[in-house]
């Protein structure tokens, strides 16, 4: 998908390219790739870097072209990892400014809509980068709230019965936190580099810089808090599972000991040696009575020690 946007009391989509407009390409086709590489002449190495899903946020300059890569959150649609982060690349030179994402995301459409509601004017390319960083941080917070709801749901299910499915759901959420925390840290490093660029430092809007820094820090703190809560909860359930297993093994051992008492008595009585009861008509009843008494005593003893 290819779209062109220009400033007009916010970002307005236009049908074709004009000087200093913003070009956004999402999940580029082969035709759109040729448009970027052949018509706009962007460096192919930049295009390939953005295509790499594991690419880290950074800023790079080559032959007058500037590449800035940040990581943005997405809903992956994968049951195992419901939320993920992917690279969003911004490439610009002179009057050409392009953003490329190889994955469908909600951020750009929301960013355009927000700029129209607030009549935001994009002053230059670095202003666009900062506003995209701000928007991505807001979406990190939105997805973190959704992840927190999944944690609460898994916790409710675990309170009813501890099953592998609920524990696996928590492990999948933990993976999401790893991606989010790592990407947010990298975005923060990128922001600090952009903020301290000497050639552009004087042109930045101080309020925008403050907003970006606040939202980035809040997203990082929220992700860390939720991750710590999840880690503590998983440790607690691991202890509960271990304790339950110990209780079951203790009960099974106690039952085995109780059953062993009449078995031992019957074995001694059944041995082919004189025992004084082989001629008695009440021998079997005496053995049953002794077995019951000793077994009852064993049950009483284990109950008193709370082994049952």
UniProtKB/TrEMBL annotation:
* Keywords linked to the UniProt accession: Membrane, Transmembrane, Transmembrane helix
Per the UniProt record, which residue ranges are transmembrane? Answer: 252-270, 282-302
A Gene Ontology molecular function term for this protein is:
metal ion transmembrane transporter activity
**InterPro entries in the cross-refs:** CorA-like (IPR047199), CorA_cytoplasmic_dom (IPR045861), CorA_TM1_TM2 (IPR045863), MgTranspt_CorA/ZnTranspt_ZntB (IPR002523)
Where is it located? Membrane
Q: Name one GO cellular component term.
A: membrane
| Membrane topology according to the record | Multi-pass membrane protein
UniProt-listed CDD domains? EcCorA_ZntB-like_u2
Q: Which family does it belong to?
A: Belongs to the CorA metal ion transporter (MIT) (TC 1.A.35) family.
PANTHER family this protein is in?
MAGNESIUM AND COBALT TRANSPORTER, TRANSPORTER-RELATED
Listed name of the protein? Magnesium transporter CorA family protein
């Amino acid at each position: 998908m290819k779209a062109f946007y220009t400033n007009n009391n916010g970002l307005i989509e236009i049908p074709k390219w004009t000087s200093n407009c913003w070009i956004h390409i999402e999940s580029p086709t082969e035709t759109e790739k040729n448009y970027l590489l052949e018509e706009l002449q962007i460096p192919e190495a930049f295009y390939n870097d953005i295509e790499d899903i594991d690419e880290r946020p950074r800023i790079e300059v080559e032959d007058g072209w500037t590449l800035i890569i940040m990581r943005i959150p997405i809903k992956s649609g994968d049951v195992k990892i419901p939320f993920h982060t992917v690279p969003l690349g911004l490439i610009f030179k002179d009057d050409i400014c392009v953003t490329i994402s190889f994955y469908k995301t909600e951020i750009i459409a929301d960013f355009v809509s927000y700029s129209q509601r607030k009549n935001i004017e994009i002053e230059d390319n670095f202003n666009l980068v900062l506003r995209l960083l701000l928007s991505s941080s807001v979406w990190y917070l939105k997805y973190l709230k959704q992840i927190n709801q999944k944690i609460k749901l898994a916790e409710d299910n675990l309170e009813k019965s501890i099953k592998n499915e609920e524990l696996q759901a928590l492990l999948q959420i933990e993976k999401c936190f790893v991606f989010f925390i790592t990407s947010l840290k990298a975005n923060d490093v990128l922001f600090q580099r952009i903020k301290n660029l000497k050639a552009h430092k004087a042109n930045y809007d101080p309020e925008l810089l403050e907003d970006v820094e606040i939202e980035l820090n809040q997203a990082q703190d929220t992700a860390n808090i939720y991750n710590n809560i999840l880690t503590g909860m998983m440790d607690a359930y691991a202890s509960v599972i271990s304790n339950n297993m110990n209780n079951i093994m203790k009960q099974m051992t106690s039952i085995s000991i109780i059953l062993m008492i009449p078995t031992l008595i019957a074995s001694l009585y059944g041995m082919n040696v004189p025992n004084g009861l082989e001629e008695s008509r009440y021998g079997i009843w005496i053995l049953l009575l002794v077995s019951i008494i000793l077994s009852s005593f064993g049950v009483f003893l284990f109950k008193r020690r709370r082994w049952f």
